[in-house]
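Why Archaeal ATPase? Reviewers of the renewal asked for a concrete example.
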Amino acid sequence: MHMKPETLYAEFFGMSERPFTLLPDPTFLYWSKAHRNAYTILDYGIFSRAPITVVTGEIGSGKTTLVQHLLKNTDEQITIGLISNAQGGRGELLQWVLNALSVDVPNDSTYVQKFQTLQDFLIAEYAADRRVVLIFDEAQNLSVEGLEELRMLTNINANKDELIQLILVGQPELRDVIRSPNMKQLAQRVAASFHIPAMDAENVAQYIRHRLKSVGGDGDEFTDGACQMAHEQTGGVPRLVNQLCDIAMVYAWSKEQKTVTEDTLNSVLNDGLFFAATMGTEETDAT
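Here is what the prediction returned.
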């Protein structure tokens, strides 16, 4: 019998799809207090015309999902570009920016020509009463030179107004780079910032029940003890909670049990299928 990956055990539990998929999905977004605060900062950064806004969080803390929610709910008067995992030296980053904004330049353009093309685009958007926002996801991968180049972009202005705003989203080390002595000028342009901490035990339980209900479950498919254990094993990192809970539901399904208990989770752990149980969260994939 062949099943689609998204359904797998879902029908057994009376759900429309698997509640703990690993792909970032705004429809599953659980609004913990920390995520609400992070989103408020993103919103504030855009509408206060902050030159640079920074949001950081551990791997798998839901940063990318927040970014996708922001993209879906941005005012139509804002031209927004998303750049993920941008790397490279001088000039390459500028090309990433042009691509994200769908601005075409000839392949043989010099750096100066590319910069002039971007500046002309920003001035045209400004004249049309539109604002331009660039979001850099996984911004901790930017080099010091790349961050300095971004700071230079924020110097482009007209009538004292910012023509481009930057949102940097990344892992905690992004904060350390920005705070370093040689990044003082960049740090001075950061008008808003927020760090998303891992969830506590209560939030993990609420998160699990939220995901279950989002796909038609009643939220009681996991016992209180199982939720507590999920927090202990994952440290409250959403992506790790998803990994563990997804495997646990497969186990429950294979045993035709409608409820995931501590015994179910112990079976998963004893069989060595939840690799993150023996790793630091820094070794897991990013959300």
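The two ends are 31 Å apart (CA to CA). This is the kind of structural detail the renewal will allow us to pursue systematically.
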